[in-house]
Write a sequence for this structure.
């Protein structure tokens, strides 16, 4: 049986990303996942895997009731947004969820990893290796501030922000979905998130984004 489904398209601050919002959740409650390649999508999301068949799709991010799609510069949104919206709606009418919960659980840590540091730049300021991450006494306070003041606005724009580490005065976050590669993301990072955290937590000196 077809599942009655409505989907609308919504622009995001990132001109390369369009947010498609359904009238039901597409993923297990509280989960978010970003797919940067067809290979990653094939691990747990049939919808993301299908979307990567469109030659202009470069990234798919799924959270709650929406899927954010990143495109390349080959076509403008005005040429493809209606086709993509209708494709997603028809797919959802035949499938109850966009992400398999059991498969996601098995690969969630793998998919949550930011992009690797550029080769030959091990000391890059926008990268921290997993083995360098250690818990700090500021972690809970940082997470709380991000969850309360930052995450709702970021999700409204079709993206996500994850706290990764705090070390030597620097907060490392992973920005995903519409926030990744967004021209205004650095302004948001420095003008909003960094100001918030440095004002509330004296030990915080700066905030940098991983894999952006």
């Amino acid at each position: 049986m077809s599942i009655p489904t409505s989907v609308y398209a919504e622009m995001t601050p990132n001109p390369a990303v369009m947010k498609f919002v359904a009238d039901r959740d597409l993923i297990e409650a509280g989960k978010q996942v970003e797919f940067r390649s067809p290979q990653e999508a094939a691990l747990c999301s049939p919808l993301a895997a299908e979307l990567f068949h469109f030659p202009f799709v470069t990234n798919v991010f799924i959270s709650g009731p929406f899927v954010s799609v990143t495109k390349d510069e080959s076509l403008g949104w005005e040429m493809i947004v209606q086709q993509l919206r209708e494709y997603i709606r028809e797919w959802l009418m035949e499938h109850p969820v966009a992400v398999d919960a059991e498969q996601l659980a098995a690969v969630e840590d793998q998919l949550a990893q930011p992009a690797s540091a550029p080769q030959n730049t091990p000391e890059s300021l926008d990268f921290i290796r997993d083995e360098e991450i250690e818990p700090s006494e500021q972690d809970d306070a940082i997470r709380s501030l991000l969850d309360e003041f930052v995450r709702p606005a970021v999700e409204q724009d079709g993206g996500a922000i994850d706290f990764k580490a705090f070390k030597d005065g620097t907060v490392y976050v992973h920005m995903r979905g519409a926030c990744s590669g967004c021209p205004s993301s650095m302004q948001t990072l420095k003008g909003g998130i960094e100001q918030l955290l440095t004002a509330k937590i004296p030990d915080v000196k700066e905030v940098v984004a991983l894999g952006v």
Helices lie at 38-41, 46-51, 77-94, 101-112, 139-156, 185-200. The beta strands are 7-11, 17-22, 32-35, 57-63, 66-71, 159-167, 170-177, 206-210. The chain has two domains: 7-111, 114-210. The radius of gyration is 18 Å.
